[in-house]
Write a structure and sequence with these properties.
Keywords: Membrane, Transmembrane, Transmembrane helix. This protein is mainly alpha-helical and 85 residues long. The protein is built from 2 helices and no strands. The termini are close together.
């Protein structure tokens, strides 16, 4: 339980810290919408997710990668997946 709380706290801090980057990117998007700015906007959540996966020690295996679209996608687990006693 403590481990889960620590991970959620870590993730929350990462998200809060990324808000500044996203705010700057949003400002850039208003003044100059380019593919570079759009990539910057999508890079921030990607980095946050990678750091959380690394912190939890999760390993990701992708099967059927050819079926993944180029569009934005959100994958959500419906359970924690392990218990710590």
């Amino acid at each position: 339980m403590i481990h889960t709380i620590k991970i959620y706290g870590y993730a929350a801090l990462l998200v809060i810290g990324s808000l500044f980057n996203l705010k700057k990117a949003k400002k850039k998007l208003r003044s100059h919408a380019s593919q570079e700015v759009i990539n910057e906007i999508f890079e921030t959540p990607k980095v946050v997710s990678q750091k959380v996966f690394h912190k939890t020690g999760s390993h990701i295996t992708i099967k059927g990668k050819e079926n993944i679209t180029d569009e934005a996608v959100l994958y959500v687990a419906n359970h924690q997946g392990y218990l710590i006693f």
